[in-house]
């Protein structure tokens, strides 16, 4: 089925008053992204449009350990990323859920766009390891108690909850408390700026095994079935790959610079 870029998933803004969080959406439309992109970002805007139209399959019943058919991952969207002609292009190898990964990508964006004057700069997150838990929706965190998998300080998926700074004027990019400041390090905020988050099938498969071993498999699914369900609950806009580590050299061959 085709990915609907207009579909939104409402998330519970846990700790809204104490943590300064507001209700967020994990679906970022192309039109919303454009308002957060700098003037001159014509290539990045065009890529955002194409990614919004690229097919995402989220109706799997089972998936194998090793994906062998391009229809088992988001090949159309991934091909668009690999073929991107704008520059520079940077791919981040993100594995640490509690690390500064979102902050580092935001800092890189800010300096590339305004310091080095590269409005078409594209940042991609090759997400795997524990960081991959951030790419599952809150319903999946609740059902499978993902916090019990050693998710550090996280009791819910706060990475897909946008903070109040996300409502600030994106034209005021120097605002120390604004949309491009450390006060809005979130997946939806970065998506609106053109950042692409790649999901890893291998991480999904291994997460399914961990859930089964921990007795966190309420429907008694097989690993193939549980991996499929996890895949079906990736947050909107994410691009599923057959494996993040294996996708890294594909991106590097296409001119992406490696960062960790």
Write a structural description:
By secondary structure, this protein is an alpha/beta fold. The protein has one domain: DsrEFH-like (Hypothetical Protein Ychn, Chain: A, 3-Layer(aba) Sandwich). 35% of the residues lie in helices and 9% in strands. It has ten helices and five strands. It has helices spanning 16-19, 30-36, 42-53, 75-82, 101-115, 138-144, 187-192, 201-213, 223-232, 244-253, and strands at 89-94, 122-127, 196-200, 239-241, 257-259. A five-stranded parallel β-sheet has the order 4-3-2-1-5, sandwiched between helices. Helix 2 runs antiparallel to helix 3 (42-53) and helix 8 (201-213) crosses helix 9 (223-232). The longest helix has 15 residues, at 101-115. The chain starts with 15 loop residues before the first helix and ends with a strand. Mean pLDDT is 89; it is low at 1-27.
The whole-number mean of residue pLDDT values reads 89
Shape: globular
The second-level CATH architecture is 3-Layer(aba) Sandwich
Identify low-pLDDT runs: 1-27
CATH topology: Hypothetical Protein Ychn, Chain: A
Tally of helical runs: 10
As laid out across the biggest beta sheet, the strand order is 4-3-2-1-5
Domain tally: 1
The CA-CA distance between the termini, in Å, is 34 Å
The total of beta strands comes to 5
Main pleated-sheet profile = 5 strands, parallel
Residue fraction in strands: 5-15%
Q: What fraction, in percent, of the residue positions are helical? A: 25-40%
CATH class, named Alpha Beta
The named CATH superfamily:
DsrEFH-like
H-E order: HHHHEHEHHEHHEHE
């Amino acid at each position: 089925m085709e990915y609907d870029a207009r579909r939104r998933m409402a998330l519970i803004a846990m700790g809204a008053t104490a943590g300064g969080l507001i209700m967020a959406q994990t679906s970022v439309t192309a039109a919303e992204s454009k308002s957060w992109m700098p003037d001159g970002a014509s290539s990045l805007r065009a890529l955002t449009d194409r990614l919004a139209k690229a097919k995402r399959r989220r109706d799997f019943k089972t998936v194998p350990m090793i994906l062998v058919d391009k229809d088992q991952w988001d090949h159309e969207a991934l091909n668009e990323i690999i073929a991107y002609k704008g520059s520079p292009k940077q791919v981040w190898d993100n594995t640490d859920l509690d690390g500064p990964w979102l902050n580092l990508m935001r800092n890189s964006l800010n300096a590339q766009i305004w310091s080095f004057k590269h409005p078409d700069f594209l940042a991609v997150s090759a997400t795997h390891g524990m960081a991959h838990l951030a790419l599952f929706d809150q319903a999946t965190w609740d059902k499978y108690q993902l916090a019990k998998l050693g998710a550090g300080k996280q009791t819910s998926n706060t990475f897909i909850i946008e903070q109040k700074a996300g409502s600030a004027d994106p034209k005021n990019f120097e605002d120390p408390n604004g949309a491009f400041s450390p006060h809005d390090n979130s997946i939806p905020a970065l998506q609106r700026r053109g950042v692409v988050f790649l999901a890893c099938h291998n991480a999904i498969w291994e997460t399914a095994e961990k859930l089964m071993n921990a007795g966190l498999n309420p429907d008694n699914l097989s690993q193939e079935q549980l991996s499929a369900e996890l895949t079906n609950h990736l947050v909107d806009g994410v691009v599923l790959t057959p494996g993040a580590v294996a996708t890294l050299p594909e991106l590097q061959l296409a001119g992406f610079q490696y960062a960790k």
